Amino acid sequence: MSSSDQLRVAVAIVRQLRPDCQFVLLDKTEQMDLDTLTNFGQWLEAEGLQVIATRVSMGGECSIIIEDGLVANSSLATTAPSLFNQEGF
After folding, report:
1. Rg of the chain's alpha carbons, rounded to an integer?
2. What is the dihedral of CA 45, 62, 35, 25, to 10 degrees?
3. What are residue 49's phi and psi, to 5 degrees?
4. Burial of 53 (0-12, 13-18, 19+ CB in 10 A)
């Protein structure tokens, strides 16, 4: 199983064990390419989950600044995967 698949399975397990859980903490999301990260974000949104994640990258997906719970610069949010939106996570 790939590392990104392991992250997906881990979150799915948490979802099954704790259906009332509204967020998860994830490390190493750089193991997902941008397409996989986008799809993962869509799945998380459909599940009603929010994520606090770490990602090592020089790409635009790591250039989001949150102020008062909202994305501070909307032009950055449009370049990021759907894991992030204008209203925060």
Report:
1. 13
2. -40
3. -100, 145
4. buried
pLDDT score of 17: 93
Sorted by sequence, the CB contacts under 8 Å of residue 58 that are 6+ apart come out as none
The residues with which 42 forms a beta bridge, in sequence order, are: none
- How many other C-beta atoms lie within 10 A of the C-beta of residue 55? 16
Q: Give percent of the chain above pLDDT 70.
A: 75
How does DSSP classify residue 22?
Answer: -
- AA identity, residue 89: F
| Surface-to-core class of residue 71, CB atoms within 10 Å of its CB (0-12 exposed, 13-18 middle, 19+ buried) | buried
User: For the chain, what is the mean pLDDT?
Assistant: 77
